[in-house]
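thought: user wants a sequence for this fold. calling inverse folding tool.
action: design(structure=
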């Protein structure tokens, strides 16, 4: 029992001696840490405003701001630890060893972060663009270091890990999406009149404002001349506008007297005499 009391007394004396010797250093380190965190937050906000003023992408601006903040805080922490006589060299070595083991354990997660950093720096797309990757299409809603969030016309959220974006074939059509349709008319119709009607319909539906539509004879069917129509629609209203355009084309052809023929087949019955 006496031995345990002596051990406790020795520990107590060591703690008291530490605080007596390093009380001012501890107080100074605490003040340095508080001031450093305040400065880091202020500098990060200034950097963010500067990036926004230079009209940088919002995701890249936030990344730069956060990176600057972390660098300042780490530097201040090193200064604070040195103030109380703690060497950071062993910590750096330990962090390096831990990082190596953690890196091997979470390769997939780290590859997502690496790909996210690549996206932020190279900017193959920005928020508001329409992209198609891995068979998924949608408007870019958020870009994070680990994943990218898309949203489609049905307000469905699509989350794609960034490692499945970098290195893949990526289609970026800005804020719009291509719609294609085929309109068949009878061989007796005037092609120029048909194209005029189609151009008028698309203009009335407001789809000519984004990009000039392409209209022309696509192919010659068995019972109809097939006109190809290609036009661009805002992605968040793609199906709504496409359906409206199809309805308007059908109605306009009826008003203009242009017939849309039904498929025809000629059947011959042969009478075989026995």
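)
observation: tool returned 274 residues.
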């Amino acid at each position: 029992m006496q031995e345990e009391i002596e051990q406790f007394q020795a520990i107590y004396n060591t703690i008291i001696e530490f605080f007596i010797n390093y009380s001012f250093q501890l107080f100074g380190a605490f003040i340095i840490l508080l001031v450093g965190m305040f400065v880091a937050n202020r500098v990060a906000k200034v950097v963010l405003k500067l990036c926004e003023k230079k009209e940088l992408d919002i995701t890249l601006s936030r990344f730069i701001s956060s990176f600057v903040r972390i660098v300042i805080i780490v530097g201040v922490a090193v200064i604070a630890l040195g103030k109380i006589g703690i060497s950071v060299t062993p910590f750096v070595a330990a962090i390096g060893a831990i990082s190596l083991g953690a890196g091997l354990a979470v390769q997939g997660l780290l590859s997502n972060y690496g790909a996210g950093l690549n996206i932020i720096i190279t900017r193959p797309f920005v928020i508001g663009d329409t992209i198609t990757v891995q068979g998924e299409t949608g408007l870019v809603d958020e870009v994070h270091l680990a994943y990218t969030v898309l949203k489609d016309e049905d307000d469905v959220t699509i989350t794609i890990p960034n490692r499945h974006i970098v290195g893949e074939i990526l289609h970026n059509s800005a804020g719009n999406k291509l719609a294609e349709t085929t309109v068949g008319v009878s061989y007796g119709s005037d092609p120029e009149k048909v194209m005029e009607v189609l151009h008028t319909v698309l203009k009335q539906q407001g789809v000519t404002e984004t990009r000039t539509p392409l209209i022309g004879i696509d192919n010659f069917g068995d019972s109809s001349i097939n006109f190809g129509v290609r036009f661009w629609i805002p992605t968040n209203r793609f199906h709504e506008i496409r359906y409206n355009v199809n309805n308007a084309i059908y109605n306009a052809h009826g008003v203009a007297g242009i017939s849309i023929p039904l498929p025809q087949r000629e059947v011959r019955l042969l009478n075989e005499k026995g």
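thought: summarizing for user.
answer: Here is the designed sequence. The beta strands are 130-133, 136-143, 147-151, 157-161, 171-172, 176-185, 214-220, 225-234.
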